[in-house]
Amino acid sequence: MGQKPSIYESVPQPDVNIPMDFMETSESEEEIYNADIQSDEDFRENLLKSSNHVQVDHAGPKQESMWMLTLQILLPFLIAGLGMVSAGLLLDIVQHWTVFTQINEIFILVPALLGLKGNLEMTLASRLSTAANMNKMDDKYDALNLIVGNLSLVQCQGIVIGFLAAFTGVLMGWSTTGRINGDHVLLLASSSVCTASIASFVLGLVMVLVIALSRKCKINPDNVATPIAASLGDLTTLGLLSWISSVLWEDQQKDRWLIPLMIAFYVVMIPISAAIAYRCQETRNVLFSGWSPVLIAMLISSGGGLILDLAVDRFKGIAVFQPVMNGVGGNLVAVQASRMSTRLHQLSDGRGPGNTHNIKEPICVPPWNILCSKEEDTRTALVLLMLVVPGHCLFVYTITYFEAGHTSPTAIFLVLYLMAAWSQVAVLLYVCRLMVFKMWSMGIDPDNSAIPYLTALGDLLGGAFLGAAFWLLDTLHLHEFTEQNNVMATASNSTLLPDVANVFTTLTPHHVPVN
Known about the structure:
Blueprint: H1 7-10, H2 20-58, H3 66-94, H4 98-102, H5 105-133, H6 140-177, H7 182-216, H8 221-252, H9 258-279, H10 281-289, H11 291-311, H12 318-347, H13 376-401, H14 411-441, H15 446-475, H16 500-504
Helix pairs in contact: 3-8, 3-12, 3-13, 5-6, 5-7, 5-8, 5-11, 5-12, 5-15, 6-7, 6-9, 6-10, 6-11, 7-8, 7-9, 8-12, 9-10, 11-15, 12-13, 12-14, 12-15, 13-14, 14-15
């Protein structure tokens, strides 16, 4: 039997002559169609790769090894500490200048202004570090726009807060003396604003350079930018404040035209710098929402300044230790806050504060959580706490070597000092853990808000703990604080403990005068 023909074979096929140009067109269209399909497949494949890349990139910062993390934090920390020691040595010198002895409110202004500059520069460093880690500074045009906007922002903030810091110092001085001197108000305002403006511009450029070099050397800028900002900021700001206030003091005794001109110039600069910052999308929101953290932080720092003003007359050696105590705690907690903020930004897939879908850790944790938990931030906290004791020992030795503290630190003083310093950093790290996560859950960017509160709290705790250590030693009559030319005397019913400086003399031929 033959096979039954197919129905398609039974249908007569029309004899149609298809033009060759049409065939070529059809083949061309088919090629385009196939190319489109291939393009769609390539697009989906690239999108999948890109999506996978984003997930990996935003799953959190690449985890450094313990020794690499320690190394990256250690060197900037030491540089920052030596910078703060230099600031303390400078404060110990300039406290005897005429302008400092005639205008006591400057002592209140110093911690407030140093804290202000630290807040502005470290928040700038934190914002730029996060932007660099999120690859927002890879394009030159975007990077330039981001840098100009941020420099204009800190310029505007520095001028405004400089005025407010001066007035805060005057008010706190009035609360202790009961009087206000108009010439002192003008001098404090002009010197504070001029210092803040110049330091903001110079240190802002330094921060941009540090972050750019960090990226080029494949170093996490979160580990190095904030400590360097603080180290340079303290010394630069204090030096500028001392020099500018002395120049204005001399002018105020003679011509009296420079101070009003300077105040008028900076009043005009406020709207100009604000307009430039408003043009940048990244800083527009901070221009309106970034004031309250800095303002509240300034008030908290002024509390530390009030403690210094009350303690500096009674404890002659406290002035040189105060910038070191405050600065070390602020630097270390700023590193932690910057790293935590970057990690939260990466976990949010770039959607910003308020997005908590990929965050597994709870907001509220017990205090021991900063030391013994499986969170990524615990490793960093352990490294930071590990650096406190050796770092402060080095800084105290440096101060003693230069004989700048008016005291030879005894072993009991060193123990109490280290206990105060370690306790300060531990409290700050715990508060940082709670604050950063709470701010993020509320839709607040920790890059802009956390560091001012934390560094200001560090100023307050540092001043309080350091004052308590000096007060305790004085109350127990373990030693008295006298001028540098005299040796440290002991109370008649007390025995001088082994002098720490004697231990240090084995390392250097330079001797510290002891009893």
